[in-house]
Amino acid sequence: MDEGGTPLLPDSLVYQIFLSLGPADVLAAGLVCRQWQAVSRDEFLWREQFYRYYQVARDVPRHPAATSWYEEFQRLYDTVPCVEVQTLRAHTDQVLHLSFSHSGYQFASCSKDCTVKIWSNDLTISLLHSADMRPYNWSYTQFSQFNKDDSLLLASGVFLGPHNSSSGEIAVISLDSFALLSRVRNKPYDVFGCWLTETSLISGNLHRIGDITSCSVLWLNNAFQDVESENVNVVKRLFKIQNLNASTIRTVMVADCSRFDSPDLLLEAGDPATSPCRIFDLGGDNEEEVAGPAPAHAKEGLRHFLDRVLEGRAQPQPSERVLETKVAELLAQGHTKPPERSATGARSKYLIFTTGCLTYSPHQIGIKQILPHQMTTAGPVLGEGRGSDAFFDALDHVIDVHGHIIGMGLSPDNRYLYVNSRAWPSGAVVADPMQPPPIAEEIDLLVFDLKTMREVRRALRAHRAYTPNDECFFIFLDVSRDFVASGAEDRHGYIWDRHYNICLAKLRHEDVVNSVAFSPQEQELLLTASDDATIKAWRSPRTVRIFQAHRPRPRAFFSWLASQRR
After folding, report:
1. 213 and 244 in contact (C-beta within 8 Å)?
2. Rg (CA), the chain
3. What span, in angstroms and rounded, lies between the C-alpha atoms of 207 and 213?
4. Is 416 within 8 Å of 477 (Cβ atoms)?
5. How does pLDDT run across 468-513, given as a tens digit for each residue?
6. Percentage of the residues of the chain whose pLDDT score is greater than 70
7. Domains of the chain, earliest start first
8. E strand or H helix at 399
9. What stretch of H or E contains 548?
10. Name one Pfam family in it (predicted).
């Protein structure tokens, strides 16, 4: 400015100069004078800075909750939990899973060292309790989940046994006394298990029917198994679902539909013309269509098919596995119970799990509605109420991701399902169920809207995995109000912004990152668990500054003395 206080440069010229600067330089220049300060906070300037710095597509609008581009830039720069603040080394082997209590005051960790550890989440994290599960013949612990009121912890583990053993168990631990309350068998072990209500949990069992055909039974269990009255059920069968081509049900979780109409963040659906159709509605209004042909029709179709095979008229001659699958499909058409509808038409809860129809590799997501009367162990124990011809339960929806599913997580409002998937090659055909197609090293993070049953936008991508199909393992992801995080086999955890679909941070470990977990009360705190046997706590730069500002400062004399010694 000149001596009279008049700017020497017009605002428009200062604006053009600031456009060529980076964000830090713009803020530094804004300290020079009032004119530059005003220009440095210009909304159009920070919109350009935002799109350029974060490399967001120009057709993506600003976050609906944002009030200015400057504040939105600051949110992504300052509130992402990317600063390592603590490393926990209490586990002696690979840490496989992390879960927070709903209050955020505690979290649990599971490990190959066969312990479940419960931690206090204060400014400095401390260990509250460690439960050793080896006395119960467990090989390792793999998953945990707090019930709704944080009074009980579900812990899932794998039994000791041969390499191909698939048996596991679920334990319920009291968070008041840390006592083990009950144990429930779980097969296969990677069903994991989950809470349905505050005192009831879902487990699985697997029954082999043929070489590559089986059925999965999902059970509802009372967390308190020591009921004195023999008239009170402690377990009830929820669903019985047919598995074809060596597939099984795994990774069960429950989505509460009550918040679908008031989501924390509304995401736009992808363009149907450019995105593949992955979601199939199996629960139409026509019950005959859902249930399949009547039993007589199924038997007639089966007889004609078998006649052609036996007479050699089926060309090409089907293999034993193809024949087994065909017979199982035809039998199930007449013995599958159609999806049950709510009397009021309102959704209650969805049971979500990985499954498949072509190979043992989990490549589909099954969705089954749970109605209010099914959320209690009261009533028939073994499904006595259903007709004798209804062996299996039909699914409501199926999501086909055309790849190996290695992780799933729900948004806090339960409306959006995030899925880690390693894609099959385009056009891949599964000729043998025991030989699935090769899978990509890149992990796609897909997003599905459970209210509209549509895929949302494009897949997020940055993280990688390297193991082949038969060695592939689950990588747990987590979703907060604004962010989604995931582990990876490339020794990093990753954080993306849910609205802008951009990767914001890479969090380094010394080995595979198996699990991540946001604090449900504070998304600026993230935990990561790794094969390097550590758990790391990460906070945002903003919270780190706040905590440092609240620490007592040394007295002036000692500060001067310390400076003299340096």
Report:
1. yes
2. 28
3. 9
4. no
5. 766 777 899 999 999 999 999 999 999 999 999 999 999 999 999 9
6. 82
7. 11-78 (no CATH), 80-259+330-338+346-381+390-550 (2.130.10.10)
8. strand 397-400
9. helix 541-549
10. WD40
